[in-house]
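Entry type: protein chain
Record version: 2
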Amino acid sequence: MSTPLRYEVLVTEQIPQNVTGLVPNGDRRIFSPLSITLVSGERDAVLVDPPLTSEQTEVVGDWVEAKGKRLTHIVVTHGHGDHWFGAPALAERFGARVVASAGTIEQMRLNVQIRPQFWDTLFPGQIAGTPVTAVVPAGNRFELEGHALRIVEVGHSDTDETSVLHVPALDLVVAGDVIYNGVHQFLREAQGDGIARWLRAIDTVESLRPRFVVAGHKDRNLDDDAARTIEETRSYLNAAAELLKENDTALDFFNAMLRRFPHRLNAGALWGGATALYA
């Protein structure tokens, strides 16, 4: 007999980056809030997308421990370090198994290679060791107290070889960075047909017919309604594709997007994407 499942989300604070320059609108360069999801049954639990820094990881570990569940798996949805660099420490602390798709594991290794030039520059001395210990579960599936959980590969979103975790028993998709929720989307890797491929990834999430979607970057004041978050993520990308054609400079594109989406968090993420797209 399977037991009922539930999910909870911990959203981290935005933390400053080691960057002196300001965003053109005057904001300080900060990192977007991170969503960490715990899916639990009566005894056991699964953690999805552990955070970036050692301090954030300790907070998440204490949060998990307070739930009183046995952590069996840590799922990584994609290779960006902000969604898994804390996994090795948490796996050791709880004796959990780190799992991901084969493509995501390759992207995790790539993020370890670029860590000295990118991640450690942004957050010097704040990231612990990051060995890639993830394995691919058979058929991209595993169980939590009799319930099937499935890693669904969706291709490119805000980076290559991304996936989502589908929890049918909860009508839930833990979407990593395929879906955003009230936060400016990361467009640095959207060159070429990146936006079109991201839109196809969103279609895959929608085809799972979730009621709830946890976005990898989320405004903690917003709910996880699937229809709204999917549509808002899609609308942001369609607007970006439109405004890229209409604007000649990164600054013009940035300002046009801010006018369309004035209430999303972390304009610095948008500016980073704009400078890459117009490089």
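Comment: The helical segments are 54-67, 87-94, 102-114, 119-122, 194-207, 226-246, 250-260, 267-277.
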